[in-house]
Design a protein that fits this description.
alpha/beta; five-stranded parallel beta sheet; 23% helix
């Protein structure tokens, strides 16, 4: 496994303080305690150093995306749906769609053009979904193409979130919406309990850093739900 030290993805600063250190408590691939740091200039919280993109694959074992259509996930999907506007007649992209289970859940009740993309899953199980096995920032979707771009518990796994925010801004139509579910760096869970899924959760966000990412990417933060 190779580690890399990085500057802040949001503001480019190399100045940070360590919040805490934590090993991989799930797979226990090694004993290294990964520092979770906070940028002293903009407040972004991230793992530094972290495994390189090539090394990170070992932290996502085969079957990582399986079993996401069970009762536990159906309840989660119902909650996620409540955060979305009407999808009828829209062109919708799910970043990190895994096997496409959430899109399939939505298609049960609404007619829309469904697209999914995932860098780790190789296929979806629903022919109604147009799928790409690729990184979102390398996908080359047309500009001003999607009405809604959503991503559920994905942006905390990225190595360079700014690339995804910028790409979402490019592919959204005027007035389109980007909806993301991310870790909260200011919650009891994120700040004190120290039980984030390190090193898989490479970035932890706050309302302020999300607003800064939006402004940097040509987007506007309109609402936050906790």
């Amino acid at each position: 496994m190779q580690l890399e030290h990085v500057v802040c993805d949001l503001c480019g600063s190399a100045s940070y303080r360590i919040r805490y250190r934590k090993p991989d408590t799930w797979l226990k691939l090694n004993l290294f305690e990964y520092p979770v740091v906070e940028c002293t200039d903009c407040g972004l919280v991230f793992v530094n150093p972290r495994p390189t993109p090539e090394s990170m694959a070992a932290f996502y074992p085969q079957g990582y995306h399986d079993g996401r259509n069970g009762e536990e996930f159906l309840a989660r999907y119902t909650t996620q749906r409540s955060l979305l506007p009407s999808l009828v007649g829209k062109r919708v992209l799910d970043i990190g769609c895994a096997r496409g289970d959430f899109l399939s859940f939505l298609l049960q009740n609404e007619a829309f053009e469904a697209h999914g993309i995932d860098a780790f899953s190789t296929k979806v199980h629903d022919s109604r979904i147009s799928f790409l096995h690729q990184r979102f920032d390398q996908s080359n979707y047309p500009t001003d193409y999607f009405d809604i771009v959503m991503s559920w518990a994905v942006f905390e796994h990225l190595h360079w979130p700014s690339l995804y925010f910028e790409e979402a801004s490019r592919v959204l139509v005027s007035g389109g919406k980007l909806i993301v579910l991310v870790t909260n760096s200011e919650s009891l869970y994120g700040r004190i309990a120290q039980i984030e899924d390190v090193p898989r959760h490479t970035y932890h966000y706050s309302e302020n850093t999300l607003r800064s990412y939006a402004e940097k990417s040509g987007l506007r933060l309109t609402s936050v739900a906790f």
